[in-house]
């Protein structure tokens, strides 16, 4: 099963992003089969597939779809194409190389959700991808795949699809901030509940799904949910893209079997660490996720395993005191967005930690005080640490700021800064302490 | 003469507006159109967009200043967006940024006196497997090093 490719199956086909080439390679073939089914049957098929969201949270897609109220009058489907989690570079490539597979996934998913309007919220910086997507959408209109009524098991169905460009704000990858941004507001996250499935875009029931997630849907329709489920692990169907970057011999965007051990991804897929050096630290799923150390490379790269595998140390608030994720749950790490950043033994982790804090301080939307003020503090204290001017007590200060942010904000950006901060202090404390001692000497 | 959109921009705005149920939802795309038309979204342009979509100026101003891609002042012909986030940093992103600073004699956020280049230090631009990298317009410049940067700056200067 190792070699099955779904979302990258057409990578390598020249000009696959052009309609005429895409049609020769079976694009839009799943539409007829999808339209022969009732929408509810499609939702069931996706539930059976164990497809989980590829944007970060790993939430079960079919279950999310099931939250749309049965009597909803107007439903929106919104595609989260705002890829900006540091270390993540898959959706951009997927959209550039195979936009028609995405559009096909959108049409089928919209039909399953009874949505008549869909928006692709594309990251503002991706001007090259914007051009490709707009052309692909225009061509799909020309071919009558969009905007033209088709006969379906649930009556006539036509979808209006619009590519909407963001304007530079990491926070808009958070789904409720994205909805506010799409409505022409500042990208400020909303309190949940109500969840978007109940009250989302323009106050209507809305499903927000990631690009990679939706690109899996056509193959689920063609081959069945059971086929997709069997490709993966018991609770996670399909394959998984890992964006492998950092000190690797062959960095790249790889579609791999779900649950591949991290060690195999590093050494066999990516040819190991550059210059024959050793791994010191790995970020397993984008910069928001607590890092792993060299003793934790045998874990499977799968949503549940990264949260629960006892081989991964639990994140601490201070030595010996575990961080409480709420409800007595502890935090190890998470699969996140699939952004894997590998660091060699020569890496100064205080500098890496500072760069991550600098990012969150820059991207905090300013709405919640613990995040707005706390990320700035973390950036300033980790900067002096990294510059060799750390003071005794700085580690305790960082931990206490991070602990003060976590769980106390409207959206997860605060957690996204706090978790890696605490994670670095839990697993690499001696390196941070040594840097302060050298500063004192 | 008061600022006005060209007929072409007006048509694009009408088409854009039709894709959304509210005028406010068209704000981000219309600001992009305005920036393409006038080169920046300073106060005067923001005012024009507010009038065009019949939105409060304070709202438009709030949106313009929230996002990083709307230029309050006209940038240079080529905007160099250089990533220094972790994957790029590990592979020399800061060396690339500093090299460009030295070559152009400007800091991030500044424009060269001849209005050719604006330099921006960016957060992750989603090309981590080809770090370090930068974007200029629709072009991605991947797997950079100082030598490649010199070549790219030369080519862009020729196009200026």
Output the CATH homologous superfamily of the largest domain in chain B: Glutaredoxin
Helix/sheet category of chain A = alpha/beta
Main β sheet profile of chain A: 5 strands, mixed
CATH architecture of the largest domain in chain B, by name, is 3-Layer(aba) Sandwich
Would you identify the CATH architecture of the largest domain in chain A?
3-Layer(aba) Sandwich
Mean pLDDT of chain B: 97
Strand content of chain A: 5-15%
CATH class of the largest domain in chain A: Alpha Beta
Kindly summarize this structure in a few lines.
The complex is a heterodimer of chains A (441) and B (160). Chain A is an alpha/beta fold.
Attribute tags:
A: 441 residues, alpha/beta, Rossmann fold, Ubiquitin-like (UB roll), de novo design (two linked rop proteins), four-stranded parallel β-sheet, 18 helices, 11 strands, 41% helix, 12% strand, B: 160 residues, Glutaredoxin, elongated
Can you tell me about this structure?
- The complex is a heterodimer of chains A (441) and B (160).
- Chain A is of the alpha/beta class and 441 residues long.
- Chain A folds into three domains: 19-231, NADH-ubiquinone oxidoreductase 51kDa subunit (Rossmann fold, 3-Layer(aba) Sandwich); 238-347, Ubiquitin-like (UB roll) (Roll), CATH 3.10.20; 348-441, Up-down Bundle (de novo design (two linked rop proteins)).
- In chain A, 41% of the residues lie in helices and 12% in strands.
- Chain A has 18 helices and eleven strands.
- In chain A, the strands form three sheets. A five-stranded mixed sheet of chain A has the order 6-5-11-7-8, with helices on one face.
- In chain A, β2, α7 and β3 form a beta-alpha-beta unit.
- Chain A starts with 18 loop residues before the first helix and ends with a helix.
- With 160 residues, chain B is an alpha+beta fold.
- Chain B has two domains: 7-66; 78-159, Glutaredoxin, CATH 3.40.30.10.
- Helix content of chain B is 47%, strand content 11%.
- Chain B has seven helices and four strands.
- Chain B has helices at 7-17, 27-38, 43-53, 57-66, 86-90, 93-104, 146-159; strands spanning 78-83, 117-122, 134-136, 139-141.
- In chain B, strands 2-1-3-4 form a four-stranded mixed sheet, covered by helices on one side.
- In chain B, β3 (134-136) and β4 form a beta hairpin.
- In chain B, α1 packs antiparallel against α2 and α2 (27-38) crosses α3.
- The longest helix of chain B is centred in the last third of the chain and has 14 residues, at 146-159.
- The radius of gyration of chain B is 18 Å and the shape is elongated.
- The model of chain B has no long low-confidence stretch (mean pLDDT 97).
- Chains A and B meet through α7, β3, β5, β11 and α14 of A and α2, α4 and α5 of B.
